[in-house]
Design a protein that fits this description.
- The protein is α/β, with parallel strands linked by helices and 421 residues long.
- Helices cover 44% and strands 17% of the residues.
- The strands form 4 sheets. It has an 8-stranded parallel beta barrel with strand order 3-4-5-6-7-8-9-11, surrounded by 5 helices. It has a 5-stranded mixed beta sheet with strand order 13-14-15-16-17, with helices on both faces.
- β14, α12 and β15 form a beta-alpha-beta unit.
- Its cofactor is [4Fe-4S] cluster.
- It is an enzyme of class 1 (oxidoreductase).
- Pfam families: GcpE (PF04551), GcpE_C (PF26540).
- Its EC number is 1.17.7.3.
Length: 421
């Protein structure tokens, strides 16, 4: 794993990102922002799932007017999570028209491809930056003391590229001796548009440690290429992910493909899985990010299960039921175990189907169980910290006995500070 690219530390409503700090998972609501009750509940659900930052759409008067009420209700419910306002086309108008919205948000997201067109582009962009930097001029509000000097995300997207810049690059490419492919021009436009916006933001009064960058494409290979290139041109914090990744598992796999390469090479300070969750809750995108970070060894969110795929040597049906039973047991008891043992998230549990790799994998785990295969003696060996702990002989009791072993292991590992009395 390579050192992190970003050296700047950015504060987003009390959450700091960049440098060697933990990578923050970000998510976005899909409720109508003007529906305050639904939006508040979805933000709470996303936070409870593990999101550290939540973005909401601010697209019209009703949404902008709702933002301070959403923030206030979140505070009253004890949900102090940074809110990002997502602006397209009319952000400069809404932020001026609704100063309480401008104050309540912790970060503004601007898309350089649609912040304005022609000679209005820079004017609108500067207007948003001036609002972002504005000091309290309208008296005390619930947000007066804590929500000024916002962070900014300059978020370019290949579905909404700056058309003027794109046309200039195409014209230049048409006369080039070594013309680039259309795909390369798109990536060049994304990067150029983003860096130009950074320079204008700094010129207007921002510092680079207030700025987060993203350049999103829906193809993993292109996303990897774009972020590697933009990281050479800026030291700002990076928000990584695909745009329009796809539905459910398909989107999760595409996201993991791109993110794992970027994270391994030190790119990424906030991440999001932009998946279409057809049969899953909105919080599924948070779970995807957690699983990627845990698989990369960057953060741990729950005990990890190592299990084999099963084969002709394995009692496949029983083995699958055992793995599923332990997974459900972990999900049910995870929060309680954390109250006992702070390193519960780091536990590794192995459930293996036969003696070929079973004992070895079980010894590598904190707690491991090696089932007998179809041809072996009907007994399951349990290992703890690499040493044989016991042998379970009754197939009907293996699941219940192994649950007890996991629970006792965690209880015996209780933090000293919690056992001092």
């Amino acid at each position: 794993m390579r050192a992190r690219h970003t050296t700047h530390i950015t504060n987003i409503g009390g959450i700091t990102i960049g440098g060697a700090l933990n990578i923050a998972i970000q998510s976005m609501t899909n409720s109508n922002t003007a529906d305050i009750k639904s939006t508040v509940q979805q933000i709470i659900d996303l936070k409870n799932a593990g999101s550290k930052i939540v973005r909401i759409t601010v697209n019209d008067d009703e949404a902008a007017n709702a933002v301070p009420y959403i923030k206030q209700q979140l505070i009253e419910k004890g949900c102090n999570i940074p809110l990002v306002g997502c602006f397209h086309y009319n952000g400069h108008i809404l932020l001026k028209k609704y100063p309480s919205c401008a104050m309540a948000l912790d970060k503004y997201r601007i898309n350089p491809g649609n912040v304005g067109f022609g000679n209005k582009k820079d004017v609108n962009f500067i207007s948003i930056i001036e609002t972002l930097l504005k000091q309290d001029a309208i008296g005390k509000t619930p947000f007066s003391n804590i929500y000024y000097n916002k962070a900014l995300r300059i978020g370019a997207n290949w579905g909404s590229i700056d058309t003027t810049l794109m046309n200039e690059l195409i014209d230049k490419n048409n006369t080039s001796i070594n013309p680039k492919s259309y795909n390369e021009i798109i990536k060049c436009a994304l990067i150029t548009s983003t860096i130009q916006s950074v320079k204008l933001a700094v010129k207007t009064g921002m510092t680079e440690n207030q700025i987060v960058l993203s350049c999103k494409i829906s193809n993993p290979i292109d996303v990897i290429d774009v972020y590697q290139k933009i990281a050479k041109k800026s030291n700002c914090a990076l928000h990584i992910g695909l745009t329009e990744a796809g539905n459910d598992e398909h989107g999760a796999l595409k996201t993991a493909t791109a993110m794992s390469v970027l994270l391994y090479n030190g790119y990424g300070d906030t991440i999001r899985a932009s998946t279409t969750n057809i049969n899953k809750p909105r919080s599924y995108e948070v779970k995807i990010c957690q699983q990627i970070l845990q698989a990369m060894g960057l953060q741990s969110f729950s005990p990890a299960i190592t299990s084999c795929p099963g084969c002709g040597r394995t009692n496949n049906q029983y083995f699958k039921q055992l793995v599923q039973g332990i997974q459900q047991y972990i999900e049910k008891n995870h929060q309680y175990w954390l109250s006992l043992y702070s390193k519960t998230n780091e536990l590794k549990i192995a459930i293996m189907g036969c003696i070929v790799n079973g004992p070895g994998e079980s010894k590598h785990a904190d707690i491991g169980l090696s089932l007998p295969g179809n041809a072996e003696h009907p007994s399951a060996v349990v290992y703890i910290n690499g040493q044989k702990h016991c042998t379970l002989h009754n197939e009907g009791c293996i699941l219940s006995e192994f649950k007890k072993i996991i629970n006792n292991y965690i209880k015996n590992k209780q933090d000293i500070t919690q056992c001092s009395d």
